[in-house]
Amino acid sequence: MLFADNIILVVENKTKVQSGLVEWQQSLESFGLKISRIRTKYMLCNFGGPFSSEVIKLDDTIIPVYPDFRFLGSLLQSDGELDRTVKHRINLRWMKWRQVMATRCDSRISFKLKEKIYKSIFQPVVLYGLERWTTKVIDERRLYVAERRMVRCMCGTRMHKIKNDYFSGCMKKVPVIKKLKSNRSSWHGHVIRRNDKHILKKVLEMELIGYKGRGKPKKTWMDCVRNDTP
Hints:
This protein is mainly alpha-helical. It is 49% helix and 7% strand. It has two domains: 2-71, no CATH class; 81-230, no CATH class. It has helices spanning 14-29, 83-99, 101-104, 111-127, 137-155, 164-171, 176-192, 199-205, 221-228, and strands at residues 2-3, 6-7, 57-58, 61-62, 68-71, 74-77. Helix 2 (83-99) runs antiparallel to helix 4 (111-127) and helix 2 packs parallel to helix 5 (137-155). The longest helix has 19 residues, at 137-155. The radius of gyration is 22 Å and the shape is globular.
């Protein structure tokens, strides 16, 4: 995949990674370009067992192995889970929260203005690309708790014994979990309307070939879509 000056190689084994890296290096250097030895990263996705790194070199430089990879605002995990990704998004939202510290909890600001601040600054940080997530109950719970905590701080009643339903009515905002399910259903409809040769349609309809371990199968994105549909 290509994006601006970034290149991502997605292959099945170490040999293809090494050969692809050398091929790109030779092609770029023929045009006077150079691959950064510092910013180049390598992530091994081993979903079937424990993490085991394999050495990849660029000339004499060993490419470091990372358990996570950040690309276009998303955090990709080598184990295919979402726990660190959810924590990363929540931390990003609190970073934005600190940037507007002077206005976020000011009692002189109306709920209507605070609602606009929340929808325009805090909510997009979490919702960006959220429709492609295969969320578990614990992931949704973490997002819900972080949202409730932030809203109670904005209303100045974090320590008061007031039910969460009261704040939803005051600020008239859609809960992040409900927004997540709505965006996921919309994205599903967007993919379904594509022609059969489109890459998104192929990925949605493809069947995984290989050995499946014992126990309950992992939750898929389509399982989330079915659960979101009332």
